[in-house]
Each structure stands twice: as structure tokens, then as C-alpha cells.
Predict the structure.
Amino acid sequence: QVTLKESGPVLVKPTETLTLTCTVSGFSLSNTRMGVSWIRQPPGKALEWLAHIFSNDEKSYSTSLKSRLTISKDTSKSQVVLTMTNMDPVDTATYYCARISDYNFDYWGQGTLVTVSS
Amino acid sequence: QSALTQPASVSGSPGQSITISCTGTSSDVGSYDLVSWYQQHPGKAPKLMIYEVSKRPSGVSNRFSGSKSGNTASLTISGLQAEDEADYYCCSYAGISTHVVFGGGTKLTVL
């Protein structure tokens, strides 16, 4: 059974750095042609892809947020970590991690709501 | 503003069919058969309903189908049921620079 679960702070202050962890089970982060993506959704708004990392450690980032994002993985811990610097209230959103296979997001975590406020 | 354009809302009565369009460009939808559709109920995570334009994951009802023509992809739901009421998002691979783009989402109301 494939599962993903996001964890991290529920509240961050403006200018702080957000660190989110996605812990996966039911598949390995070393599986060929699979990876993990981060996707966010501001309240009442659409989904926005942020980044992904594949089994070969290939990383890709949203063009508009690239300067603020870093994605990494620890295969032994089955974890993928996303950091986002210089947080702003407009970054308030539910952050999801999802398994990506051939550019399809086939399994999703439950999401974690992150609020940016002083 | 989302990269892929979807109607904000569609509606239909139980038993009817509806189609949701997803318009992109020759750099995304028009160039790759890597269009997927996601269903999202309020407060829940999205669920993959269609991948690679027209394929259904195991467990997804055959009432859901997908297609593509040029730069526009479509999701059709036949035999509408109350449980289909949700938000639907399209998504496309967009090449090695942009990677992934989502649509703005469509709210489906079952009357």
C-alpha cells in the first residue's frame, strides 16, 4: 500500500524558511522512473506544482519559485524534504507531496496547511 | 493565472454527461500525450482519474474518459452521479524548462 505523509510547521513568520518533509511507504525512492513532487494549493485556489525529485536524484523546480526552493531525498529514511526560503503571506497554502510516475501524480499525501503570518 | 485554461464551472443532472475542457498551447498539451486529470472533493487531496490523455487507473469508474485534440484536452463524465460533484484539475507535462502545468480547476455541480 503506497502512502505519503507530509510533516512540518503549521505556522511560519514572514521571511523565515519553511522545511517540509514527505515520508513515503509502499515504494522505494530508488524505484526507476518514479519520484516525489511537491504541489501546493492556496485556500480556494488552484494547484501549483513546485518541484520534484526522481530516483536518479534528478531535480526540477517551478520556474517562478526556483530561487527559493530546494528539494532533496534520503532514500534510507524514505523521506523527501522541501525547503522554501523567504516565506511570505502569499505562500499560505496546503502543501502536498505526491508520487510522480511518468509525469502522473498517482498517489498523494493528505496535505499540510502552512500559514505565513507574523 | 494558471497555464492551462479550464471553465470555472460546469453542471449537469444525474444521469447526464458533461465535458470539461482544458486548453493549453503547443508547448504543453499540444506536444505531449502526458495530460492527466484529478478529482478533488472539499478538504481532500486530489485523486488521479485519467492519465496519459485517456487511460484510467485501476479502480476509477469507466464513466470517466479523456481525449485530446490539438492543444485542448477534455474530460468527459457520463452517467453523472451525486458523488461526482467535486473540483477537477487538468495537468500537462510542459517540457524540460517548465516541466508541469496545472489548469485553474473546474467546479462540477450535480443538480
Remarks:
- The longest helix of chain B spans residues 95-98.
- The beta strands of chain B are 9-12, 18-23, 35-40, 47-50, 64-69, 72-77, 86-93, 100-102, 106-110.
- The helical segments of chain B are 95-98.
